Every structure is written in C-alpha cells, then in structure tokens.
Amino acid sequence: MSVIQFLRILLARWKLILATTLACLVVATTVAMLLPKRYPATARVLMDMSKDPVTGEVLVARGSGYVGTQIAIIKDMRVAGAVVDRLNLTSDPSLVEAYEATGRSVDDGGMRQWLGARIIEGTDATMVGGSNILEIIYQSDDPERAKRIVGVIRDAYIQESLRLRTDPAGRTGTWYQEQTELARKDLAAAESAMSDYMSKNNIIMVGGVDSETAKLASLQAALQQAQGMESSNAIASSGRLANDPVTDQLSVQLAQIEDELALAGARLGTAHPNYKAILARRNTVQNQMNQARSRSQQSVSALSGAAKQSVSQLTREVETQSKLVLERKPVLDELVRLSREVELKRSQYEESNKRTGELKLAADLSEPGVIVMGDPTASRTPSWPKVNQVILLSGLLGFGFGLAAALIAEFVARRVRGHEDLSFAAGAPVLSIVGASPPSPLRQQLRKLLGRRSPGEPDADLQAI
Fold first, then answer.
1. Which residues cross the membrane (predicted)?
2. Which of 190, 220, 429, 449 has the greatest CB tally within 10 Å of its CB?
3. Model's pTM, two decimal places?
4. Number of helical (H) and strand (E) elements in the chain, helices listed first
5. Crossing angle of the two packed helices 93-102 and 110-121, in degrees rounded to 10
6. Neighbour count for residue 191 (Cβ, 10 Å)
C-alpha cells in the first residue's frame, strides 16, 4: 500500500475515525470528571549537617543511600500508625464504615493497619533539587485534610527519626553500663588481691616502688655522694696542708728570727745575751710552728678517716640491702604482675565508664537531626486526575483506534479508490483513465513521491482521454 492509497482510505473513512476519536474523548473526559480528585499537600524539613552532639565530629555528607533511608522511614508503617493514632482515625464513623465494608478482620492487621496502608499509599517524599531539603507529599480528596495529615506525618517522622537515633544508643548504653559494673567489680577484686598480697609479704609502697627497693636506691645515692665528698675532702686536705695560714705566718716569723739570729751571731757572738734571747725566741716560734703543723695533720687525718669510714659503712649497707632486694625479687615480681593487672582493670573500667556516659548522652538527645521548615501547604489544583492530559491522551488514543478501525474496515471490504487499486486488483498496468482531467505538474510530482507502481506498470505518466 502506497502513501496515496493510505490517504485515500483515510479520506473515505474519515467519519469512522472522527467517531472513534470523539467517543474516546467523551468517555475519557467523563471518567476523568467523575473520578474523585486528589489534592497534594507538602511539608518540608531540612536535613541537618551540623556536628555530632556527642563526639563533636562533623557529619559526613549524606548521599542517596541516606535519603532513600529517610524516605523509607516516612513511608514506614510505624510513622503511618503514629499518624492514625494522633488523628484518632479509628474512631471516625465514615472510616469505620469503609473498613467494615472491606470485610477485613483482626487477622489481616485490623483497622489501624488498613488505615496506615492507605496513608502510605498517598504519601511520597523527594529531595528538592540541589539542596538538603526533604519535601513530604500527601494526596487526599480534601486539600485541608491533606494539609492536616501531611503535617502530622512530618511530626511523626521527626519523632521516629529521633527514636531511631536514641533507642540504639539507649540499648547499647544499658549493655555498656552492665559491662562497666563488671569492670568495676573486677577492678575492686584486683586491688583487694594486691592489697592482701602486700600485707602478707610486708610490702610498703613508696613513690610507686616497694620500701626495700626505695631504701636501696637511697643508700646507693648516699654512697655516691659520700664517695664524691671523700674525693673532695682529699683535695681540700692537701690544699689545707699546703696553705695553712697559721703555719705560713709562723714560717715568715721564723725566717725573720733566723735572719736576726745570724746577724746577732756575727756582730755580738753566740755568748751575748741578745743572741741568746733571739735564739730562745726562735725556738719558741719553731715549737709553735711544729704544733700548728701537728694540729693541721690531725684535723686532715680525722676528716679523711671520717669520710673513709662513711664510705665503708655505706658500702656495707648497700651490699646488705642489695642481697635483701635480690632475695625478695620473686615476691616483688609477683607484686609487679598484680600491679599491672590492677592498671589493666582500671583502664578497662575507665574506658567502659566513658563510653557509657557518651551513650547516655546520645540516648538523652532531643535533636532528631532534621529542622522543620515552615508550615504545611496544600494546593487547590488537583494533582489527579489531570483532565488536560487525559483529553490529550484520549484524543491521540481515539485517533489511533480510528485509524486501526478504518484500515480493518477497508481490508474487510476492499474498494477501488484509484487506478493503483485497479492495477493491483487486475494484475495488469493501467494505461489510461477515461474522462479524467490531465494532471497538473505538481500533482504528477506528488504522485511520483507518494505513489507505488505495481509490477509491470510502465514508468510513463498515464494519459487522460
């Protein structure tokens, strides 16, 4: 079939096509006008991206997975059931009558389940493009009713979001609290065991170490100090012997007297009384100098002996204390083990107690992580059915049905509507058309473009007679 044959069929069957199109338009428009209208109402919330109130860490960017989870929560039966309870829909006579007409029973979930499913069916949510705003949509046959329900849905969603954040923290916090109590008991038992062990073995802790070890360290420090003092005293004693002021002064006097004595002996002689007086004075100074040297020697010897005695005594005490500490080493090693166990138990208790506090704080949160944005709004324009779209689609569909009906009718009762049909029916080419006016050049061109020749038909244009 060529395009021109198809157009001839359409022109011949235009009444059938028009009737089918009009019928579809009338039926669809009537149904659209009779169907109950549904009006959308919206409520918005802002997904909060602030810091975590417990840890203080900045929350990571929330992607499609998080948004999908929030939408699933909004359309969950827990939210829908909360809406039913808050609006007390199970006591509405019209809804009770509609529920009874369904024939459902408690085994099917009851009226609350049925109403919740209806609310979920009319609920949707979507993210406003390029933002963190989540828009909740509810459709109902009454715009005011839709506005009231979508506001309750938003409130129920916020409460459910808060509950989903706090309930796991509360349950985990309860478990951690139990573990904290067990850790506290373990710590008390470990401390008691270490205290009993120290009491049994007469161990006294001083500055984190036992008293015997502390005493050994003190004696070792005293020994080192005494050894240092001994060396210092030896050097000081040598200097004192070499630089004794009394001895030095007497030495100067003795040298002067020696000079006087030599001069008197040369001038006066050794038998002269003055010579003998100077000699006696020299002997006296000599005795005084010897006594001074003797006292210095005794003082240095006494100081050196005391230092040596102190070092010797401290050395013996250090050796004795070292033996005692070595003998008590197994006891002290066991004490170290018990002390480490106490520190481990204390660390476990502190960590568990800290985590318990954090979870308790998280369970007491009052921020659901979303922020309410404005009041719910309702549209007075129905979102369904959309009459304009219904008319357009029904017209296109009716026109399509009309075309199909026209073609079917044509194939059932095929007629000759042009020389192409005649050529096809006769199986022979049409050479001329009697009584037809000569075709115009434009018509000839269109015939060439739209027409389709039968097999054996000549290429030359048909001549009208």
1. 390-413
2. 190
3. 0.52
4. 14, 8
5. 100
6. 16
Residue 353 lies inside a defined structural domain of this protein: no
Q: In whole angstroms, what separates CA 229 from the centre of its chain?
A: 64
Residue type, 97: E
Query: CB within 8 A of 47, min separation 6: which ones?
Result: 62, 66, 67, 70, 132, 133, 134, 369, 370
Same domain, 155 and 55: yes
Do residues 374 and 445 share a domain?
no
Q: What's the mean per-residue pLDDT of the chain?
A: 76
Q: In total, how many domains does the chain have?
A: 3
Q: Are residues 73 and 133 in the same domain?
A: yes
Nearest-angstrom CA–CA distance, 118 and 341 = 61
> pLDDT tens digits, residue range 83-119?
999 999 888 888 888 888 888 877 778 899 999 999 9
Cα 114 to Cα 92: distance, rounded to the nearest angstrom: 14
- Note whether 122 and 139 are within 8 A (CB): yes
Nearest to 48 by CA among 373, 314, 458: 373
Closest CA to 349 of 187, 172, 156, 155: 187
Structural contact between residues 134 and 45, judged by C-beta atoms closer than 8 angstroms: yes
The answer to whether 376 and 154 have CB atoms below 8 angstroms apart is: yes
Peptide bond preceding 385: is omega within 30 degrees of 0, i.e. cis?
A: yes
Amino acid (one-letter) located at 261? L
Q: Is 115 found in the same domain as 45? A: yes
Q: Can you give the residue range of the structural domain that contains 431?
A: 3-32+386-464
**pLDDT mean over 53-70:** 61
Distance (Å, whole) CA 384 – CA 368: 34
Instruction: Please tell me the distance from the alpha carbon of residue 134 to that of residue 458, in angstroms, as a whole number.
Output: 71
Q: Is 442 left (phi over 0), alpha (psi -120 to 50) or beta?
A: alpha
Q: What is the pLDDT of residue 243?
A: 55
Q: Report CA Rg, the chain.
A: 60
- Starting at the earlier edge strand, list the strands of the sheet with 39-47: 123-127, 133-140, 39-47, 370-378
CB atoms under 10 Å from CB of 373, counted, come to 14
> What tokens does 193 get?
């065991």
Structure tokens at 36: 């109950």
